[in-house]
Amino acid sequence: MFRIEIDRELCSGFASCVQDAPEIFELDTSGTATLRVKETDDERAREAAANCPMNAIAIVELD
Amino acid sequence: MHTNPTFWILARASGLTAYVLLTLSVLWGIVVKSRPFGSRFRQAAVVDTHRTLAALGLGALVIHATSLALDKTVRMPVQALFIPGLSHYRPYSVAAGVLTAELMVIVYASFAMRKRMGFKNWRRLHWITYALFAGGTAHGLLSGSDSGRTWALAIYICAVAAVAAAATWRALEPITKGEANVPNRN
User: What is the ipTM of this complex?
Assistant: First the structure.
């Protein structure tokens, strides 16, 4: 299980996270990524973090 | 008395260098969105490379303009480097170059203002890049004194073919399930 954090200042609305994991990420009306779920064990969240063009997604491991 | 050719050579070399860097930056920009290499490259590194290539291209443009201002071969008035249409040397194609350079600065500077202008508008502004590439190609082909040489023509043909192929590939790329739900896609 891990927690997902989005740096909304860095996010530039490329939507690559929505492309990778639409069940976890979405864009708000301003075009900034937001979370549908804050904690998950879905590996696609890690993929989205690795693919984020702005490095705006962090994965925090939970014990 | 012979005119010192240093600035003229520098102007030609820096102009072509700027064009090659602009081409690479456009290609890398297409890679950011389309991901043709899958996860082989980190997307953040692709964005950094895209911006670095654009910045280097602008640097080459500054050298191009400065060396033209200092050169005594074509005697380009300084104001002609900023205002389209003032050049006596091939006025239309030089005007295309001036406009292209000014648009490059605007598109590059817009990155810092993307929040303020809104992502949707920022990405719309980025579509100008295709016109900018066309303008740069026209300027190089019609103004460049080396355009008739085989190696220079090869550079232009390869650049246009690469950008056309990448843009076509991106246009034909199917929209994935997640992206189809994005409210403000380009």
Answer: 0.72
